[in-house]
Amino acid sequence: MKIEEAYSYDYMDVVDAEKAYELFWEGVIKDKRNFECPAQNCKAQITCSNIDKQIEEMKNTPHFRVYGEHSDECDIYKEIKLAELDVSTEKNKSRTSYLGSETDIFTTERPKNHYHTRKESVKDNDDKHKGIKTSIQTNRDNSLTKRSPEFYSIRPLISKFQRHSKENNLSQRFIKIKGYDVSYKEMFVKIDNNELDKLSKYPRIYFGEATVYRKNNSDFVVRFASSIIDADVKYKPSLYISNEMINSYYWKHKLQTCLNELASNREKQVLVFVYSKPYKKDRFLNFYIDTLDLIDFRYL
């Protein structure tokens, strides 16, 4: 059985691999090996493979891998052994997990103190981490429902969307936004001659092949290859990314490199995801975003 969750020394909480990836690129998690088995009576060391790679460099999505030894008392280790004997049950798996697997929380605005609180220096202190793990496990055991993973960018949601697609369970997995549950199937909308008046009035994650153009030397325009139709007229939606928006973003150096490469090589196929809703103005149909957490690029 794969390890789906791990305790992060840097974040001081239990996370899944998608959250670990988000936190690594935010600079909160410093090392892909800074993880441990979440069980309070176990110190098995864990690494999160691929979180230090950009998406286009990955052969596999981010995932946890144990490179230490579980304690004999570790419930998670016992569940792994049962799985190897093919006698594991969903009940046992649920009992040993810390995070819910059916619903993810997407917070479209980061708390103002998000980086400040998470970037505090964390010294190696076994007693401190053991106490935190004990508290997390106690809260899990006392709670009637599992804690849902929480994300501030669409990048990890895209990875989960791709995984849920392969597992054919998009309708059974949900994203909670502002208190409302939306299935992954409903949230992700492929741009493919959709009729504008039939699209949701709420933002969704639209995606499709696109080309990136440089504008005014420092700004960029993303133009989708497929269309959205309004009154029998086909519009190829666009998205404007200003230099000011790039410079105010925590991931600006990586994103600037990506945009420069795409603008310089327009023949390179890229899939663009954007959390927004299309709006028509004059002869154009556009998406609008106020933070670059709401867009991502995946090479085909």
Explain how this protein is built.
With 300 residues, the chain is α+β, with helices and mostly antiparallel strands. The protein folds into two domains: 5-157, no CATH class; 191-299, OB fold (Dihydrolipoamide Acetyltransferase, E2P). 28% of the residues lie in helices and 28% in strands. It has helices spanning 17-26, 75-84, 90-96, 114-118, 126-142, 155-167, 184-187, 243-247, 252-264, and strands spanning 5-8, 13-16, 35-36, 45-49, 63-66, 103-106, 150-151, 174-177, 180-183, 188-190, 194-195, 204-215, 219-224, 228-230, 233-235, 238-241, 270-276, 279-281, 284-287, 295-299. The strands form four sheets. Strands 10, 12, 13, 16, 17, 18, 19 and 20 form an eight-stranded mixed beta sheet that branches. The chain has a five-stranded antiparallel beta sheet with strand order 2-1-3-4-5, sandwiched between helices. Helix 1 (17-26) runs antiparallel to helix 6 (155-167). Mean pLDDT is 86; it is low at 116-123.
Number of helices: 9
**Separation, N- and C-terminal Cα atoms:** 30 Å
Strand segment count: 20
The helical percent reads 25-40%
Can you give the mean pLDDT? 86
Shape: elongated
What about the largest sheet? 8 strands, mixed
**Helix and strand pattern:** EEHEEEHHEHHEHEEHEEEEEEEHHEEEE
Class computed from helices, strands and strand pairing: alpha+beta
What Rg, in angstroms, do the CA atoms define?
21 Å
Task: Give the count of structural domains.
Answer: 2
- Which percent range describes the beta-strand content? 25-35%
Low-confidence parts, pLDDT < 50 over ≥5 residues? 116-123
